[in-house]
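Repro:
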Amino acid sequence: MSGKKITVLSGGTSAEREVSLKSGSQIHSALIELGHEVKLEDLSAINQIDQLKKNVEVFIALHGFEGESGILQNKLTNLGINFFGSNAQGCINTWNKANCKKILIESGINTPKFLTTKNIKTMEFPLETFLENGFYIKPCEEGSSIDTFAVKSNEEFKSLKQNLVNPDREFIIEEAINGREFTVSVLKGRCLAPLEIIPANGIYDYHAKYIAEDTIIQKAQLESDQINSLCDIALKTCSVCECKDWARVDVMQNEDGEFYVLEINTVPGMTDHSLFPAAAKISGLSFNQLIHEIITDA
């Protein structure tokens, strides 16, 4: 079989630029080793894709707004350019965390309770809503745990609000679920081995994701019925959110054993610290085999 002509889009201008560049570089190398004709592009503006040739297929390694909001996917579709991964609607359904949680709730999928604010700097501590377990501050439209913090007191809330990278956007205030953290990578309609995440400081933040060497990522140690339940939830989540080809579903399990979906990533990281490649490895797939499956029609 002759190789494909593929352009890998990475970089961009979002807060996740550096992660995206690393993902794009590794995908680019894998595709070359697989025998494809590959070009790696650092996308600085969406309009750059107007220059793409119609006989090229696109592998999106852009994290953040440019690669996960649906705008890029919509533009590629309108240009008649094939790409791998979720279409525009799947990205729209998952990019905004509040909108995604509404879809989950309507579909009967557990997700932590939440509220949103467009002015977090003047927001009062939401004591009555989140008194028991505390809560997380997260941007409604961002990934890689940038501007994501755990909060348990008014003093912490006041302090953290002063240290946000970009406070002038919509934030979600989400109930903290005390328990274990899992992630399920979904590849072409099947679950790879679920992973448990155990950060040394107890919070899977940007440092724990991309810098720390003491974050434990291991195959989920759960009974078979719980593994099946976790996978069923991940598959249903991808289905109701209209995700395609590959996606990653992040889940918490509370102390009573109930699972709660936190969010869905339509362009998961592909760095040496990333979860999707780790799940593939545990499932018996090398990085090159994983990339091959993503670009191969079912």
